[in-house]
Amino acid sequence: MSTLYVRDVPEETKSVLARMAAEHGASMSEYVRGLLDKVAQDGMKAQAIRDADAQLAALHANTGPWPSQAEVSQALDEVRDEYETGDSS
């Protein structure tokens, strides 16, 4: 584990971090490590979302425009009707 020094921040920031750590029953080191872990996790989640968006955009580019809600509803209605009537022509 790397050593982290909270020294390149204003005194007010250090004071706030120390107070918040105390409120959570943690040392400042533990508290700051927890904050950084959360930032990293949020960043990984954000990256996963960006990756998924990029994949969807690539899929969209390869397959053309996606159907509208009305088109999807119409297709579902047609399939439902075919199922209920047994007509698949």
Describe the structure.
The chain is mainly alpha-helical and 89 residues long. Helix content is 74%, strand content 0%. It has 3 helices and no strands. The chain has helices at residues 11-23, 28-63, 69-85. It is elongated, with a radius of gyration of 26 Å. It starts with 10 loop residues before the first helix and ends with a helix. The relative contact order is 0.06. The model has no long low-confidence stretch (mean pLDDT 84).
What is the compact description of this entry?
By secondary structure, this protein is mainly alpha-helical. 74% of the residues lie in helices and 0% in strands. The chain has three helices and no strands.
Fill in the keyword field for this structure:
mainly alpha; single chain; 89 residues; 3 helices; elongated
Q: Shape, please?
A: elongated
How many H/I helices? 3
Portion of residues in helices? over 70%
* Largest β sheet strand count, sense and barrel closure: none
| Spans of at least 5 consecutive residues with low confidence | none
Question: Mean of residue pLDDT?
Answer: 84
Percentage beta strand? under 5%
* Global structural class: mainly alpha
Number of strands: 0
Radius of gyration, in angstroms, nearest whole number: 26 Å
Rounded to the nearest angstrom, the distance between the terminal CA atoms is 66 Å
H and E order: HHH
Q: What order do the helices and strands come in, and which of them pair?
A:
Elements: H1 11-23, H2 28-63, H3 69-85
Helix pairs in contact: 1-2
